TrEMBL record, chains A, B:
Keywords, ordered alphabetically: Electron transport, Heme, Iron, Membrane, Metal-binding, Oxidoreductase, Transmembrane, Transmembrane helix, Transport
Pfam families: Cytochrom_B561 (PF03188)
Function field: Two-heme-containing cytochrome. Catalyzes ascorbate-dependent trans-membrane electron transfer by utilizing a concerted H(+)/e(-) transfer mechanism.
All residue ranges annotated as the Cytochrome b561 domain in the record: 20-228
Entry membrane topology: Multi-pass membrane protein
Any one of the GO CC terms: membrane
Cofactors required: heme b
Organism: Oryza barthii
Keyword Ligase included in the entry's annotation: no
PANTHER family, per the entry: CYTOCHROME B561-RELATED, OS08G0101700 PROTEIN
Compartment(s): Membrane
UniProt-recorded name of the protein: Cytochrome b561 domain-containing protein
Length: 238, 238
């Protein structure tokens, strides 16, 4: 009596959504850069202008835990035409996630450095709590997957049992990253709209930040839909 | 070569997660009530104290679009022992979602009424944008499901094809509601921590709001895990 939608951890399916996801990934990267460079003054890890240190945080988090993570999740499908070896695509999947995780790590370092130098307290907001949980789960998930599927690698049966859990829990961690990016955009814009800056609520920068957040959200939805493969042919009706 | 995790729209599976979800649903309801009644002064739809009108918004949104929506999603499984008729459980599923949607509608009315009476602009924040999109998608999804599965009802084949999409897209709308609740808790707490109230960043109320948000988030994860049924026995390994 089960009616099923399927989350696939393997090849094939969702071709249209993969293209949509790539376009949204490029758009999200461009938009967060325009915001932080054009509207907020640029990026730096060392500067007398502490805001520039903060600015590296949203750029690296979006690039690492959302854009590269999305490309890593989709890499089995994206590369199926140009990279015929499944083993090579597995290394791309693993490598993109590792680079994404590293960029996310630097992005979190940047915001702690900004807080320290601008005398702002740490870890009081929901965004920071969920952020620490998300990057910790991301790192743990990567490590367990590396040990299970890459080196030293578990037995064939264990790998077979682990794959759907890997796909489902990996998507959940990715959804947390996408959701927490929403929290970050909202939190920063709320600060900018409060005194002393009092940024216009309907101005160009406010609209850019909200639309960047929406593009990140739609990217998350596209990745889930590209990964889900609805197949109802075998099941009974409701 | 597909490795699959399955989202089930039907009966059975995830028993432990269903119990966890019920407990988290009760906790989320109690916590948002303690926050809005004990810390924020109570609930009202008419009052000289406009904050009381606002307070009905988080309570009704959490109760409607998160707690009742979660119970509606899980109702096929929760009630499988005490309600033997599948048709009766379908009516409970439909009815709980209808009540959840109605409470959500009153919750959105409350926040617009608060804005009007307290002279606060509407629809500038990411929370409000995603909120309007979410309740619109929720209503559309409910209506399409009513027409397809209940009255007048589509053909057997159409219903069979529609069920996995109904389950997947329904879970996506639920995830949007859970994520947007996070945005709402963060936005309101950020306002309360700014001048003039300057609520303590690590005080009892701040911790309660953040933990309420986390309980809502964990409820969302529990519903997804209770609905997903990982079955890898038929599939090849990575």
């Amino acid at each position: 009596m089960a009616m099923k939608a399927v989350i696939k951890g393997g090849d094939g399916g969702g071709g249209c959504m993969v293209v949509v996801a790539h376009v949204l990934a490029v758009a999200a990267t461009a938009m967060v850069l325009v915001w932080c460079v054009h509207f907020r003054g640029g990026l730096a890890l060392r500067s007398h202008n502490k805001q520039l240190i903060f600015n590296t945080h949203p750029v690296l988090m979006v690039l690492g835990l959302v854009v590269l993570a999305a490309e890593a999740i989709l890499s089995y499908r994206s590369l199926s035409i140009i990279v015929s070896s499944r083993d090579a695509r597995k290394k791309v999947h693993l490598g993109l996630h590792a680079v994404g995780l590293a960029l996310g790590g630097v992005g979190i370092y940047a915001v702690f450095k900004y807080h320290a130098e601008a005398d702002i307290p740490n870890l009081y907001s929901l965004h920071s709590w969920i952020g620490i949980a998300t990057i910790s789960l991301y790192a743990l998930h990567w490590l367990l997957a590396f040990l299970t599927f890459f080196f030293p690698g578990a037995s064939h049966d264990t790998r077979r049992s682990a794959v759907p859990w890997h796909a489902l829990l990996g998507l959940l961690v990715f959804a947390l990253a996408v959701g927490n990016a929403q929290l970050g955009f909202l939190e920063k814009l709320t600060f900018l709209q409060a005194p002393p800056l009092r940024l216009s609520r309907y101005g160009a920068e406010a609209l850019l930040v909200n639309f960047t957040a929406l593009v990140v959200l739609l990217l998350g939805v596209a990745v889930v839909l590209a990964t889900a493969n609805v197949d109802s042919t075998k099941y009974t009706a409701m």
